[in-house]
Design brief:
Shape: elongated
Number of domains: 2
Strand content: 25-35%
Low-confidence stretches: none
Largest sheet: 7 strands, antiparallel
Structural class: alpha+beta
Mean pLDDT: 84
Distance between the termini: 122 Å
Radius of gyration: 33 Å
Order of helices and strands: HEEEHEEEEHHH
Number of strands: 7
């Protein structure tokens, strides 16, 4: 093969690659426009009406949350239903947000720096406000304390378009528990019946909504997310333990240095006093 033939073959390969990529992009765009966008618009219309009616009626819907095995909140009432969208023309994300709240705070005690750090990170990750009253040990390291958690939980249910995968993802945060869940939905699954069930799920009248819709792929995805989250927490705990060990070593060194300095000062003072006494005795002997 001559040089020109070789260059021509390479040019054709590049063009073929560009053509394949363009076809894939066109297919994603077609799938979004014809299959996903109409379903996103339907979801947005339904949730807009739902939020309007719920904010007017404010039905008595309550939820109690487990605070990571340490305590349970009182009954929190669902209020402030709010819907938002990233774009009215090209919707790719719809957020339906709810506030679950009651007066006061829920308090519980936690022992051990590792447990304290874990609870603190979990509350921050859930977007929940809290205060922490700490009790220090002799090395000024938090080993015991009391969390005061505000009785206010922000929940969010988001529909997210994924044209590259031809699906709509439902992400749920802090609704059934203080955590995250995810469902992969095909556009054809977004029907009037499904949204009716979803509305009753919001009103906590349908407790098996997730179980009915979840697929094996979703289960694997959730398991992968949980495993990644577990590995992340383990790494953070190891880093916290390392930082704690370094801090303890620093404080121990400072304490030892202070002790050494105190011993040196005491020794210097005793030596000075002893020298003064010897000098006085020697002076008296010379006078004799």
């Amino acid at each position: 093969m001559g040089l020109l033939d070789e260059l021509k073959a390479r040019a054709e390969a590049i063009k073929t690659g560009e053509t394949d990529e363009q076809r894939a992009e066109q297919e994603r765009e077609r799938r979004y426009r014809e299959e996903i966008l109409p379903r996103m618009e339907y979801i947005y219309g339904y949730l807009t009406e739902l939020a309007k009616h719920l904010n007017l009626i404010l039905p008595d819907v309550y939820m109690r949350y487990d605070l990571f095995g340490k305590a349970r909140t009182p009954e929190l009432k669902q209020t402030a239903y709010e819907i938002s969208v990233d774009s009215r023309e090209n919707m790719t994300r719809i957020d339906f947000e709810i506030i679950c709240e009651a007066d006061g705070e829920t308090g519980f005690d936690v022992e051990g720096k590792k447990n304290i750090d874990t609870i603190r990170e979990q509350l921050i990750g859930a977007g929940i406000k809290f205060e922490f009253k700490v009790k220090m040990d002799e090395l000024v390291v938090a080993q015991e304390g009391r969390f005061l958690v505000k009785n206010r939980v922000p929940a969010r249910l988001s529909f997210i378009a994924e044209p590259e995968n031809g699906r709509i993802v439902l992400q749920i945060r802090n609704f059934d528990d203080l955590g995250r869940h995810r469902l992969n939905l095909q556009p054809a699954q977004i029907t009037e019946e499904m949204m009716e069930r979803f509305g009753r799920y919001i009103l906590r009248e349908m407790h098996d909504f997730l179980q009915l819709e979840i697929s094996e792929e979703d289960r694997r995805h959730i398991q992968e997310m949980l495993e990644k989250d577990r590995q992340r927490r383990e790494m953070e705990m190891r880093e916290a333990e390392w930082r704690e060990a370094v801090e303890r070593a620093r404080l121990e060194k400072e304490r030892n240095n202070r002790l050494i300095m105190r011993v040196k000062r005491n020794l210097a003072e005793k030596t000075e006093k002893l020298g003064s006494k010897l000098t006085e005795k020697l002076a008296r002997l010379i006078k004799r």
